[in-house]
Amino acid sequence: MNDTAQFLALALMLLLPLSALIARRPPLGQTVKFALAWIAVFAVGLLLVSQFDRLPSLRTLLYDQQVVGQETRIRMSEDGHFYADVSINGVERRMLIDSGATITALSQETARAAGIDTESAMFPVALDTANGVVEAKRGRAETVRVGSISTRDLGVVVSPAFGETDVLGMNFLSRLGSWRVERRSLILTPSNQE
User: Membrane-crossing residues (predicted)?
Assistant: First the structure.
């Protein structure tokens, strides 16, 4: 939404309550108080919307991850994807869950923070991604935890081509007892064997 459209929307939102006040013809002092209250409400709302990306607690309320019994439920984000709060070797990251990715893919920064050794890998691997073929190094995460689900010794690939993106792939999902989507929520159920 451009600035002009935002201004017009805000003006319309302010005009409606003001016109209701004027139609009732309350005393001027009361009208000014109501007008200032409405302006404050809309200003706070506008501030929250404009700073949405900087408010992780607000994002968590809207795109939360909950443990219900043994299941971990992750609500779909606005972009139609599922993002999980994941612990990799004790390092917390927000990761895209992608059933189209064969293997879990980590950014170099995440791999470094989690202490994942990629130097032992003799040769890089070529991966066919949505952005073409990229070269990556193999590594292993000792522990990966998502909500109530924990797994050990998970294979990962690391590449500068991934940028800052971390992806939880099918090699993680295949270790689950089950996973499914119901009413815009991804439901992960642990395996009894993990």
Answer: 30-49
Q: Token pair of 61, please?
A: 């309320």
Buried residues in 164-188 as b, exposed as e (16+ CB within 10 A): eebbbbebbbebbeebeeeeebbbb
Q: Write the Ramachandran bin of 115: left for phi over 0, alpha for psi from -120 to 50, otherwise beta.
A: left
pLDDT over 60 at 3, yes or no: yes
Cut 0.85: pTM above it: no
pLDDT tens across 116-143, in order?
988 877 788 888 777 788 888 999 999 9
Cβ 156 vs Cβ 106: under 8 Å: yes
